[in-house]
From TrEMBL:
It is found in: Mitochondrion inner membrane. Its EC number is 1.3.3.4. Residues 113-607 form the Amine oxidase domain. Pathway: Porphyrin-containing compound metabolism; protoporphyrin-IX biosynthesis; protoporphyrin-IX from protoporphyrinogen-IX: step 1/1. Keywords: FAD, Flavoprotein, Heme biosynthesis, Oxidoreductase, Porphyrin biosynthesis. It comes from Microdochium bolleyi. Its cofactor is FAD. This is Protoporphyrinogen oxidase. GO terms for biological process: protoporphyrinogen IX biosynthetic process.
Amino acid sequence: MATARSEAVSLQLLSRVSSAGRRLYSTSCRRPAAAPAGGIAKLHNHSNSVYGHEIAAKRQSRVFSSSPSPSLAAPADVKRIKRNSVPTSSSVAARGVSPADGKRKIAVLGGGLTGLTTAHYLARHAPDAQITVFELGDRLGGWVMGADFDTPEGKVVMQAGPRMVRSMKGANRYDDLVFYDVLANLGIEDQLKDVGGQAGTRYLYYPDHLVRLPGPPMTPDNLWNIAKSLYQEPLWDGLLPAALHYLKHGDPPSLTQESRAAVNEDESVGHFLERLCGDDRLVKNVASAMMHGIHGGDIYKLSAKHTLFARLWYQMTGGGDKSRAWTSYKELSLMCDIMDGPNRAKVFEMAQGAVERNMLAFDDGMLTLVRSLERDLQNQSNVKIKLGTGVKSLTPVSGGKVSVRTESQDGTATEQFDKVISTITAKALANAAPAGSLSALAETHAVSIQVVSLWYPERGLLKDNPGFGFLVPVSTPNNDEDLLGVIFDSEAHTSEDEPGTKLTVMMGGHHWDGNTYTPSEEQAYAMAQSAVKKTLGIPYQSEKHAMVRFCGNCLPQHYVGHRKLMARAHEQLLQAFGGGLSVAGPSYTPAGIMPSMRAGYEAAMRVATQTSQPWTGTQRPEGQTWWSMLAETKNDKGYEVFRGDHIGETGLAGFAQDDGDTLEPLPHEALFFRTKAAGAVDVLDEHGRPSKWIGSPLK
């Protein structure tokens, strides 16, 4: 919660940034212009497959492939297509508005977190618009879902989707600022809590038992256990040669025009790490498990540029000093926009506090967030929500409008919109568009996850392995259940009051690519019990609650060549819909709660303002600035932080740009609210005066 003092400090910061900011950016960012009880709770599948794409295919063996999966064909020749993504007044006028009331009509397809966030910001920043949200299911929230169970021991909250977020203190992205901004808008920031317990302790299951990963506390006993594990466990085979290889070959190349151009290439996570380690054992034993936990994907298909290894990949490919991080200009633009918004004091406090935290959640996971967003939208006079309404087809019409045909229990309906923002999966959107018009989106792929939540009335079933949970690498033998990992919900918690022991079992992912079948709920339940007994030694019990959910096509896979594929999609969207249809969500940009909300924010603000960033800097009172000296210097040569329009008319304009033109190796001190920024937590001195600007000391 923002205090009076923090608001006062904010205003002090606002008044002093311009000259200091110019000095910082001239040295840090400037770049040469040339370069039910006791049983199973059956949940309805909530999958975008219902929009037209059905999960299919046959069981295949797990074979590593080095070839990129999607087609990397060059974009079609579209020289005659209008490329200017910033609409002029004439282009906006050509698209027109609804004649009845003079308001723009905007449709948002999908009521998951991206769609909800899109509508949330449209409602606030597009007062000239009437917004309609179409959601096929009977509820909002997408993959965020849960239910309360009453037991003799007390109430239990069972989750069947994402339930916590990781603070982004070590990242060079600023998705978290949008998350904090939404919490402040909704007034629920005080309900967000640290995930306590043993959440920092994690395990891998290999080859037939849990192996604790190195981590805190750095006590003598724990350090001894770490050393013993590294020496004895088969999991770490290949560690020593990999370390020696990295020491010999792990320095990034010098920053040159050639190395800068190299960041436009791509490679899989697996091949990149093999290149660094000179060995594939750690890749298959350790890194593949990480990809299972985050993406449910194949480490030899996922692009290194679009995973948690992106920062390392850019450094080792683009080169430069290790004290710098290759960072997109759009991250700085986003930070400046959010920190210039009406919630700047609250966002400042939340972001600053998150530097010392790891995992965050509400007491009910993320249900508080979804329910608050839903209530907020229901209170907005310019928002309509249509549940149980699926999109059957999208057709471009004259004037840049889009005709949307929907189907519900009341029958079919057709309505024209001035703008449509799609947050459903890329493949589902391709199926709704005119045949063949969005072939690039049709080439995308997503995996399905079988989620089974189990609750046992007995406490302490995890006492021998306290922690967040475990993941299963691709090299683990006898993984008959196709297990990806298990979350120890009763250990990673925000409250000590919940009774019993609670687990979430995750199966499937890329293991099920090509399957001709998926397990029934009863089969999935039995598989989960078998996996828990084998890995944790918890025997079958009849007195427990279980919740089973099949999440079809829930995790989009950004394979090698994703950026080129999205560049093709950008051109096809322009060609087919002339700017009337834009996209947002994890099919295109990173998956996860925070990235999904960031995608919704950017899509909404681009449509609401009908221009590129900055979006909020122009709204501040005169004389009050924070980091928004970027707004003043937008057109100044040498201060080109706002590099083009990465959203554009399609939501994908940034993919049409070369990576080398959108990134810069910035010093860690320039990444505010991040652990590597010098004094990132102590931004203010002992007198409450600002001592840092964007993490860099004032001179």
